[in-house]
Task: inverse folding
């Protein structure tokens, strides 16, 4: 969190400068889930946090730099709140469920005021090529990668059959989490989260049923 | 593009004024899929279509009025391009498939320059209460209603079992279409649309398998 070393001037950052950058990015992350990352102009953000525009410019040279730093800050929050707790689960299907539950908990706890930062920002930036979009696409791919890894572990552990199309399964799990995030934002009704839970459970039950079938086909295999 | 004829006074709208309104809204719909509906300020839109701000103000008294009229225009396009063709299909599961294919075709034909108008705008407005959001939520509910109706027909025709949770099925179908829209916008790769196709096929196959099971349980029923 001391990237402002490079911000506009060559002075060594002081402790209050660091805190200030942290406070700016925290506000920016939250504002982005309601106003969008594109709505995050330096002027509006400065007004929102009661800072001067020139004060903000000292930290971020351009709207794009601010957007990229905001995405970085949101990644750190998401990692600490969703990915790290989920990594404590058993690899395989338990990990898939832990990722799903950590994500739904993240929504329910309103870590960002309006649902998942990345879903909102990805939907908004999808049609706007550039560095912020590339970064968000990278986050989505890495989130998909977590599910792919857990499903690969599940296959290795014999929890699901090798014949299960894991890339398709990742798509379907992510689809449910993606839609439920927006239903949650609109309704603020915790019950809607059960739709994603039920959907993922059915997907995993089906993938496991595939395993039972595969096991029946290979009755002599004992490991 | 000569709407400023009516700027700032109360003359009755003439045919060229109406045509101009149509042209404005057509541009506004398209711009909204890339820049978002929130990004649709009267100033930016005026600049985009080469009109004066006062000319635009003659048509729309406020940004909100412009947003609501833009949503109405997008509804008319979506209805003509997706809903009406799909209504020609046989009621029931064939209708579900026709709705899905009409939607995927709508993306592929790039009717809007960046995917589904409603998915983008819904994602953007979810956290911003107001009349535009309410209107978009209404469109989403009516889109869900089309699937619910087709699945109800499928149940009546015995294509799926009465025990199938149709509300959950609607959620899962919509989830796949919602995510695939954004993957399509980012990748512009027609192959990604197959993920939604494969997902929906699996869902419907499973719902039909439920029916076979239900039929086996009621072997004497012949209708």
Result:
């Amino acid at each position: 969190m001391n990237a402002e070393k490079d911000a506009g001037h060559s002075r060594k950052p002081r402790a209050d400068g660091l805190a200030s950058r942290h406070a700016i990015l925290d506000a920016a992350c939250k504002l982005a889930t309601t106003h969008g990352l594109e709505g995050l102009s330096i002027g509006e953000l400065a007004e929102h946090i009661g800072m001067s525009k020139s004060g903000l410019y000292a930290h971020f040279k351009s709207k794009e730099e601010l957007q990229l730093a905001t995405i970085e800050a949101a990644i750190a929050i998401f990692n600490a709140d969703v990915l790290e707790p989920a990594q404590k689960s058993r690899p395989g299907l338990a990990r898939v469920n832990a990722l799903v539950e950590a994500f739904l908990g993240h929504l329910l706890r309103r870590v960002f005021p309006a649902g998942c930062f990345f879903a909102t920002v990805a939907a908004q930036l999808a049609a706007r090529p550039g560095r912020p979009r590339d970064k968000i696409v990278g986050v989505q791919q890495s989130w998909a990668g977590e599910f792919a890894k857990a499903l690969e572990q599940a296959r290795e552990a014999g929890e699901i059959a090798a014949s299960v199309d894991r890339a398709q399964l990742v798509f379907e799990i992510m689809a449910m989490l993606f839609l439920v995030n927006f239903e949650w934002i609109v309704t603020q009704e915790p019950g809607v989260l059960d739709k994603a839970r039920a959907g993922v459970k059915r997907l995993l039950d089906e993938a496991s049923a595939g395993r039972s079938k595969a096991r029946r086909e290979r009755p002599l295999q004992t490991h």
